[in-house]
Amino acid sequence: MAIYGYRRVSSDGQEDGTSLQEQERRINALADLKGLDRPTFFEDICSGSIPLGQRDGGAVMLADLEKGDSVIVTKLDRVFRNATDALAQADWFKARGINLYLIDMGVDPVTNDGASRMFFGMLALMAEFERARINERTQDGKKAKSAKGGHVGGSRPFGYDVIGKGKAAVLMPREGEFEFIAPILERRAAGQSLRSISTWLASEGVKLSHVGVGNVRARAA
């Protein structure tokens, strides 16, 4: 049963309390406390956004792990990208009978029965919160870009042409359509139905379904 220590910093010489040397000291201290052999160390100098299996040291360590082995890490963010990643990866460790020690979570393996339920429950809540925050930031970003005349994806809206691609895409008024947006909104505000507005547009030589008329109103809201 092998004992491994994993340590990571974002940049060489990082000295903010998470340096490679400080992580090694804390990992060795836990190994001594638990009566384990001195760990074999793997390390990476890379962004925490890179999955463990795609890091140079992390990939080699994962390939070497066998049932009954132990991995000691100082903090969750040294080895996992976020709570969602931690939930999936820690479950992988547990399913293979590998002991995972996270020093900031205590002195016992978080993949053992004693601490496992609390640890995985906590991660599940954190992962749900992260997904909600990511979705919220994405929606806020789309609204902000749209307000500045940017295009947030999908087909072009009535009245505009899409200029550029990706994040650089912006909307520019399309002659022959843009000038009908204000009348559409006025007719809708006056109580005209979507279909009647669509029929009126057709009489003006502009093709737009009742669904498209509704989209114009929704975009202006």
Summarize the structure.
This protein has 221 residues and is α/β, with parallel strands linked by helices.
Characterise this structure.
The protein is elongated, with a radius of gyration of 28 Å. The termini are far apart. Helix 7 (194-203) packs across helix 8 (210-220). Strand 5 and strand 6 (170-173) form a beta hairpin. With 221 residues, it is an alpha/beta fold. The chain is 48% helix and 13% strand. The chain is built from 8 helices and 6 strands, in the order E-H-E-H-E-H-H-E-H-E-E-H-H-H. The strands form 2 sheets. The chain has a 4-stranded parallel β-sheet, sandwiched between helices. Strands 5-6 form a two-stranded antiparallel ribbon.
- Low-confidence spans: pLDDT under 50, at least 5 residues? 144-152
Largest sheet: 4 strands, parallel
Count of helix runs: 8
Mean pLDDT: 80
Strand order of the largest sheet: 2-1-3-4
Structural category is alpha/beta
Give the total of beta strands: 6
Radius of gyration (Å): 28 Å
Strand % is 5-15%
Secondary-structure element pattern, one letter each = EHEHEHHEHEEHHH
User: Kindly, what is the distance between the CA atoms of the first and last residues, rounded to a whole number of angstroms?
Assistant: 63 Å
State the helicity in percent bands: 40-55%
Shape: elongated
